[in-house]
Amino acid sequence: MDSIKRASDLIGEREQNLSTKAYEVLLNMLINRELPVNTVLQERRLAELLNISRTPVRDALNRLENEGFIIRTGGRTPVVKEFSIRELVETLHVRRTLESEAASLAAGRVPSAELDAIEAGIRKLLADSTPSPQEDWEIDSRLHSALAHYSGNMLLMQYIESLRLKTRMFNLRQVPERFVSGHHEHLEIIAALRSGDADGARAAAAKHIDNVRESIVRRLSQL
């Protein structure tokens, strides 16, 4: 009986790992527009693409649905969700509240070596005549993740990460005019974090999110 239980546990653990893998791959495909809006997500085809069984794919799709990245049509078929402008504005409003609080809590707590690395990455991007969009996203993520992580609040970190991914569904390469100004705002946040200025970090983070929101809404209003 013990051997049967161990085998069952191993199978369950393997399925969980495969579900996580499927989730991460599909989320990355959504974020990078490899699965455009309104794409029908068929379990069988996705399972073949990922070379896994349909069960972990189904688990991944359920998780993505719960997180608001996909929806079910009338026939219960999952499709990639199209976000509305209202959802974008609401998402950025919540991000402003959460990330400004995280920045305040993280002030003076982020290791200098981490801030040095992030700042060096930002300055490298600003000096590059053809900066890589992927590197831009990675350094942006590193700073915002540091704010969340060093806030010391795990739940705050999880919410911020989820909302940032949803924001990226809207603004990936859609507001190129934000590249230089956005990174200078990042440098302002870093300066406040270095000095342990909680109020300054809070204000800089709030200003950054406000400017992101205004730029995206302005761009969408021109379409």
From TrEMBL:
SUPFAM superfamilies: GntR ligand-binding domain-like, Winged helix' DNA-binding domain
GO molecular function: DNA binding; DNA-binding transcription factor activity
Keyword Repeat appears in the UniProt entry: no
Keyword vocabulary terms for this entry: DNA-binding, Transcription, Transcription regulation
InterPro entries found in the cross-reference section: GntR_C, TF_FadR/GntR_C, Tscrpt_reg_HTH_GntR, WH-like_DNA-bd_sf, WH_DNA-bd_sf
Domain HTH gntR-type: 16-83
The protein's name in its UniProt record: GntR family transcriptional regulator
Family matches, as PANTHER family: GLUCONATE OPERON TRANSCRIPTIONAL REPRESSOR (PTHR43537:SF24), TRANSCRIPTIONAL REGULATOR, GNTR FAMILY (PTHR43537)
Keyword Nucleotide-binding: no
Matches recorded under Pfam families: FCD (PF07729), GntR (PF00392)
Highest rank taxon of the organism: Bacteria
